[in-house]
Amino acid sequence: MVKANAYGHGLEELIEVFAEHADELGVATLDEGLRIRSWFNRQMPVFLVSGAKDWGNREYLDAVREARLVPAVSSVDELRLLADRMRGTGPLQVELKLDTGMGRLGIQERDLQDLAPILRSADNLRVVGIMTHFASSDEQDLDSTREQETRFRTMVSRLPDDLVQTASIHSCNSGALLHRGLGHIDIGEGTAVVRPGVMLYGAGPSRDLHDTPAGDLLMPVGRWTTRVIEVRTVAPGDAVGYGGTWKVEGDRPVQVAVLAVGYADGFRRSLGNRGRVVIRGGSFPVIGRVSMDLVSVLVDDRIRVGDEAVLLGSQEGELGSDTIGAWEWAELCDTIPYEIWTSIGARVDRALSVGRG
């Protein structure tokens, strides 16, 4: 899964890396699919898992077909509309998304009987995939995930073989895959395709799964850095930042580094007086409120203008070695790594490291 700009990491920068290891790619929107086709000439299937689904719009439909994207159809009404709009056009590969308990998108079990007549009348639609999405595979209790899987197998068995016999069947997201790595090999049993997402970028979908032997094998693929743009001396009793939420205590002045980053870039405002950064391999706390474009950090006289400050990722230097992971931020901000990464703003440059493994 490379949706949401490769989970905020930079789809254009990573597309060739993913293509070396994946048989298929998954995106959420038409725009993402079109961008992949413009950057990448290989005939790799690109699955459109959600998006606007604007099948009533001829331009939208033509764009999906001409870019050879594989849309996920998640209701009988959608399949019927798509079949109607596709009459007289070229063939289109589609994927059926089945709702087995997520309760969001997906064809419901009671509607399965309506699929075959529509598919048989639309001879230019070819089912190449059947999927479901686990709602709770990131949790320790796998009962509901196993219930979803049982329902998925039952629903798939009710589909006519002649219409879906060549389709790839998949259910395993990152949570399910990590559970398989922990020995729960019955999760996703019998499926031929897996659908990793957040784990590709170095985090488990829950903290519980992240902190397991399987999660320990995950390595962050990105580093977010900025630079120290000023180091200033702040006198005792003086405040730093909007609202004066941090003041120098004691009777000695302190050194404060100002970093070129802020909440407009995705450095959360809630990290003010709570977060930290790594400079020269040492950890330094964020002080005061995070501004739109600037962050202040309490440092010492070893820090200089121009020093690299690591916001997310690892750094080694004269002061040691340290790592700030996405789960550290997520817990401080009461969220998950998905939101941390996808909130990194467009004005933050992305670049592929020459040392990729």
How does this model look, in words?
It is a single chain. With 357 residues, the protein is α/β, with parallel strands linked by helices. It folds into 2 domains: 3-217, TIM Barrel (Alpha-Beta Barrel); 224-342, Lyase, Ornithine Decarboxylase, Chain A, domain 1, CATH 2.40.37.10. The chain is built from 12 helices and 16 strands. The protein has helices at 3-7, 11-21, 30-39, 58-66, 76-86, 115-121, 143-157, 161-164, 174-181, 207-210, 326-332, 337-342; strands spanning 25-27, 46-48, 69-73, 92-97, 125-131, 168-172, 193-194, 224-234, 239-240, 246-247, 254-259, 276-279, 282-287, 295-299, 308-317, 320-324. The strands form 3 sheets. A 7-stranded parallel β-sheet has the order 1-2-3-4-5-6-7. Strands 8-11-14-13-12-15 form a 6-stranded antiparallel beta barrel. A two-stranded antiparallel ribbon has the order 9-10. A hairpin with a 7-residue loop joins strand 13 and strand 14. Helix 5 packs parallel to helix 6. The longest helix is centred in the middle third of the chain and has 15 residues, at 143-157. It is elongated and about 80 Å long. 37% of the residues are buried. The mean pLDDT is 94.
What percent of the residues sit in helical stretches (DSSP H or I)? 25-40%
Q: In the CATH classification, which architecture of the largest domain applies?
A: Alpha-Beta Barrel
Element pattern in H and E:
HHEHEHEHEHEHHEHEHEEEEEEEEEHH
Give the termini separation: 19 Å
**Average predicted local confidence, pLDDT:** 94
Output the CATH class name of the largest domain: Alpha Beta
Annotation, overall tally of beta strands: 16
**The CATH superfamily title of the largest domain:** Alanine racemase
| Rg from Cα | 24 Å
* Shape annotation: elongated
**How many domain modules?**
2
* Main sheet overview: 7 strands, parallel
Number of helices: 12
Provide the β-strand percentage band: 15-25%
